[in-house]
């Protein structure tokens, strides 16, 4: 578990650096994809999924 969290934190830091650095390149997209897959394998995934679903529901109910 400690190795998974370490990889997750490393990929998160890399993704933030790549996004702040400007243009998103293929290598950056690969790092972000790996971060997503690692995040999906953690115990935080159900909480994140329900939060995103609730946010999507709120946004879809807004009328301009």
Helix-strand category: mainly alpha
The overall average pLDDT, rounded, is: 80
3D shape: flat
What would you report as the Rg, rounded to the nearest angstrom?
A: 15 Å
How much β-strand is present in the residues? under 5%
Biggest pleated-sheet summary: none
Structure description:
- The protein is flat and about 35 Å long.
- Helix 1 (2-20) packs antiparallel against helix 2.
- Helices cover 80% and strands 0% of the residues.
- It has 3 helices and no strands.
- The chain starts with a helix and ends with a helix.
- With 64 residues, the chain is an all-alpha fold.
Short key terms for the protein model shown above:
mainly alpha, 64 residues, single chain
Question: Could you give a quick summary of the protein structure above?
Answer:
This protein has helices spanning 2-20, 26-40, 45-61. Helices cover 80% and strands 0% of the residues. The longest helix is centred in the N-terminal third of the chain and has 19 residues, at 2-20.
